Amino acid sequence: MPAEAATIHEKLDIFRKYNLYFLSSNNPDEISKFATDYKLSDQPNVKFGKSDSGKIIQAFGAIPTPSVYIYSSERKLVKQFNGETNIEEIIKFL
């Protein structure tokens, strides 16, 4: 995810009209450091949250990290990417 997060920061203009949610089972200090390190903590459309690993598995099944899920405004899954993915591939589905 570090490469993806760095590229998201570089292309923030493309993502401005979308809400981005970063979920992690890491502790809050690590999540905050990640958000700060990749200059995403002060973006109004970028949210960070902590979730228990069990809840993530319950909701999404066993998934590799990182994973990206793109949903439509109707809350329908448009595309999912498991594992590190080139941001240009993700942008195609926005």
Give the SSE layout.
Layout lengths: L1 H9 L1 H4 L4 E5 L3 H10 L8 E5 L2 H8 L6 E5 L5 E6 L4 H5 L3
Parallel strand pairs: 1-2
Antiparallel strand pairs: 3-4
What's this, in brief?
With 94 residues, the protein is of the alpha+beta class. The protein has helices at 2-10, 12-15, 28-37, 53-60, 87-91, and strands at residues 20-24, 46-50, 67-71, 77-82.
General description of the model:
With 94 residues, this protein is an alpha+beta fold. It has one domain (2-91). The protein has helices spanning 2-10, 12-15, 28-37, 53-60, 87-91; strands at 20-24, 46-50, 67-71, 77-82. The strands form two sheets. It has a two-stranded parallel sheet with strand order 1-2. It has a two-stranded antiparallel ribbon with strand order 3-4. Strand 1, helix 3 (28-37) and strand 2 (46-50) form a beta-alpha-beta unit. The two termini are 19 Å apart. The model has no long low-confidence stretch (mean pLDDT 92).
The counted number of beta strands is 4
For the sheet with most strands, the description reads: 2 strands, parallel
Determine the fraction of residues in helical runs and give it as a percent range: 25-40%
Summed up, the domain count is: 1
Keywords:
alpha+beta; two-stranded parallel ribbon; two-stranded antiparallel ribbon; 4 strands; 22% strand
